[in-house]
Structure prediction request, 169 residues.
Amino acid sequence: MSELPISDVLSKAYEDYSDAIFRFCYVRLGNREHALDFTQETFIKTWEYLRGGKEVEKIRPFLYRVATNIIIDHSRKKKESSLDHLMNQGFDIPTGDAGKLHDALDVKYLIRIVSTMDEKYREAILLRYVDDLSIQEIATIVGESENVVSVRIHRGIQQVKTEYKKKNG
Prediction:
């Protein structure tokens, strides 16, 4: 990773990626307090990993992988979260004027489509288009090849297009 002390590496990583990790957790959990806790836990686990003398080549995908594992562990304990749940908890798309209302409704509809997708497609779509991660970073996070990730994103987009066309003719 680098020759900086672990505390400096983690401090910089926190400064650069804590908001993105929080957003990643919040979109998946729909609960602000859990997202804050999981963000903190992500950095604590990363700290422990680094303090244990282990190396991390690329910190950003590593943080997402840690956060993903924490979320998976949580979901195994408590089956709860979905994008519909997120919307029911008050996550709303801002609508400034009447002209934007139609666009906001389309975005909500797209969120509903994505929420019904198979997890592997949903995760790839969210990591790519919500979290703005590269295919390589997503591959590292999900533990698959870049080709598999690209195919999942492509198939996920095809599913979204098909469902959206059904609604809009």
About this structure: The CA atoms of residues 127 and 133 lie 6 Å apart. The radius of gyration is 17 Å. The longest helix spans residues 6-29.
